[in-house]
Write a structure and sequence with these properties.
single chain; alpha/beta; 5-stranded parallel β-sheet; 4 helices
């Protein structure tokens, strides 16, 4: 299953981008052995519309342009379901095992995600009750993708 990250906003060069890239590189190297392949990070500029609803709608349209037919969609939202790392890994393993070919993990803009996306989503997840800057969300999701691969392959990276 090919996994992509869709993010509203661009990650500038610096330590955050370096750390996210490090985990995505680890994921890209270890994932194919268990059928999980890193596809790409899709970055789009934040909408410049004058109100939040229009911005979210325009950002959702940009996401939908990159969503392949039949692709699973996971939204990251503060109101989503919180999973521990083994359950996060199981979610990916189950999608892979059910025959999903593509999966997109969506990180919305500063205003959040458009309501129209929730009906299309296979899951809506949160990364805890705290609010995280988008730069850190990229790092967290990249690390959790790598951790998911290690859990599914029985590698000792994840310790309980």
């Amino acid at each position: 299953m090919r996994i992509s990250i869709f993010a509203v906003g661009r990650l500038k060069s610096g330590p955050e981008k370096d750390l996210a890239s490090r985990y995505l590189d680890r994921f890209a190297k270890t994932g194919p052995a268990i059928g999980l392949e890193f596809s790409r990070v899709i970055e789009v500029a934040e909408s410049r519309a004058s109100n939040a609803e229009t911005r979210k709608r325009e950002e959702a349209a940009m996401l939908e342009k990159h969503l392949a037919d039949g692709a699973a969609l996971i939204l990251l939202d503060e109101r989503g379901k919180a999973l521990d790392s083994p359950a996060f890994a199981d979610l990916f393993g189950n999608m892979r095992d059910s025959g999903k070919r593509d999966l997109v993990i969506a990180i919305g803009g500063a205003d959040g995600l458009d309501p129209s996306l929730y009906d299309k989503a296979s899951a809506t997840l949160c990364l805890g009750k705290l609010t995280w800057p988008h730069q850190l969300v990229r790092i967290l999701i990249a690390e959790q993708l790598y951790r998911a691969v290690t859990i599914l392959s029985g590698h000792p990276y994840h310790r309980v």
